[in-house]
Amino acid sequence: MEKKLSFEQLFAFAQSVFEAMGCSREDARIAAEHLISADMSGVDSHGVARLSGYFRLWEAGRIEAKPNIKVKHETPSTALIDADRALGLVAAPFAMNLAIEKAKIAGTGWVAVRNSNHYGIAGQYAKMALPHDMIGISMTNASALVSPTFSRERMLGTNPIAMAVPTASEPAFVADFATTTASNGKLEILQRKSASTPDGWVQDEQGEITRDPAILKKGGSMLPLGSDREHGSHKGFMLGSMVDILSGVLSGANFGPWVPPFPAYVPMPENQPGQGLGHFFGAIRVDAFESTESFKQRMDLWIRRFREATPVDPDQRVIIPGEPERMAEKDRSMYGIPLNEAVWEDLKQLSERLKINF
Asked: Is the dihedral of CA 38, 178, 143, 247 positive or negative?
């Protein structure tokens, strides 16, 4: 049976956990805000369900609670950041804010990050550009759970891409998607529910399609967006590769099969060529190209026309990217954030261990 808590309740608890790890109050606030934003958006796989995972990474010495985040190299429009093993939830806002500041000066800002950790949902950072009348871009590589087309070996992460675009009167366009058929978090949710995956999400160790959501623990792997060659998995493979190159190869972070795993109990890959996880952020000032107001009005027109596209089913219109998350946020602001029994018990055990009220 699901239980519900408000944003404020979960935020306060998450902030207390991050402070117990040794984070400054401000970093704990930033991390908690970005973490709980996933739950508010309906992306339960990347919210408080991950909190104990961050704590275990810190216990394992893989997260630095008081990092010295440094700009290692920069030009007027670009920068490379060494996150010093910070929480990705802290390093990512730092980097995106820098991209925005550079865009204010140069028209666009591009920031690569190395030596970081898992940063939650990509869309949250892309949206940071919206109040500045900028287009925001966010992506990150992740631990290797995905087999390229024709492979049995895990080589890529779910490697999400997000883009947020400002509008005039319509809600902003916010695309946030994994470059796999499904995110790893969705497999974790199905495991908690004792449910099976749809066909085409995962394969076993021999490369055969399976519906077992726990197959990753048995040597299996996830599949790129498209599932198989006939349905375009090579395109999902290419998208994931682009994220890996911009986030990992360009920044000096690890990439491909060398990206550190999120579970603290999984051994680190040997002979790592880089440092930590990598992210990549972009901010594009609209008025570096044309009138902001003209662009935003045309974005409104774009959204309205796509929303009015003739549906296959009269009861199901086209959904504009960002709408499901906004609907979830509206609902959860009113009725609370649902937590299933497994997540509830996990947080309860964490609270008892740290002696934090839950």
From this structure: negative
Distance between CA atoms of 182 and 174, rounded to whole angstroms? Answer: 18
Residue appearing with tokens 């930033």:
30
Asked if 248 and 274 count as a contact pair (C-beta separation under 8 A), the reply is yes
- Of the candidates 350, 105, 152, 143, the residue with the CA atom closest to the CA atom of residue 254: 143
**And the tokens for 12?**
């306060």
Listed by start position, the domains of the chain span: 1-62+325-358, 67-181+223-321
DSSP string for residues in 274-290: S-SEEEEEEEEEGGGTS
Q: Which long-range contacts (CB under 8 A, 24 or more apart) does 210-218 make?
A: 213/187, 213/188, 214/187, 216/145, 216/184, 216/187
**CATH code for the domain defined by 67-181+223-321:** 3.30.1370.60
List phi, psi (to 5°) of 109: -135, 135
Question: For 339, phi and psi rounded to 5 degrees?
Answer: -125, 125
Q: Mention every residue, 6+ apart, whose C-beta is less than 8 A from residue 107.
A: 77, 284, 285, 288
For the chain, 358 residues long, give each residue's pLDDT as a single digit of tens.
Answer: 679 999 999 999 999 999 999 999 999 999 999 999 999 999 998 999 999 999 999 999 999 999 999 999 999 999 999 999 999 999 999 999 999 999 999 999 999 999 999 999 999 999 999 999 999 999 999 999 999 999 999 999 999 999 999 999 999 999 999 999 988 878 888 988 889 999 999 999 999 999 999 999 999 999 999 999 999 999 999 999 999 999 999 999 999 999 999 999 999 999 999 999 999 999 999 999 999 999 999 999 999 999 999 999 999 999 999 999 999 999 999 999 999 898 999 999 999 999 998 8
CA end-to-end distance (rounded Å), the chain: 18
Q: What is the CATH number of domain 1-62+325-358?
A: 1.10.1530.10
CA separation for the pair 29, 179 (Å, rounded): 30
